[in-house]
Amino acid sequence: MLNKIEQTDKILMHDWLAAVLASCKGKIGFVDCPTMLYRQHGVNSVGAKKYGLALFVGKIKKAELKKSLIDTTIQAQEIVDIYGETLGQQEYQLIKQYSEIWRKNKFQRIQFYLKNKVLKKGVPRKVCQLIIG
What we know:
Shape: globular
Structural class: mainly alpha
Radius of gyration: 16 Å
Number of strands: 0
Oligomer: single chain
Largest sheet: none
Distance between the termini: 33 Å
Mean pLDDT: 78
């Protein structure tokens, strides 16, 4: 299964991929202690940032938040394409629907996010996600 990960450059966040596959194939739990050191480097496509109003206003002006949301749908489609046959029907449908979310109107996207609890972490990020749709 690891060889499949190497086949694509559309998987932007490998930890997200690992979480999706783990949730589909097993159980996810919470470990309340560090298990490794976190390091960032200059070419991280995403990473730890301090999210505040100024960052969001700047990202909205540059359309970066919308692009980021669209990128996650491209990644979701790639997961469906590569791992679809190994996913359960419910997981497959959720990821497939998410991958096609930008074909829907804004109201339908917001409804999908809320119904399926597919929301960003933190209040400011959730608000921006819902504003952008």
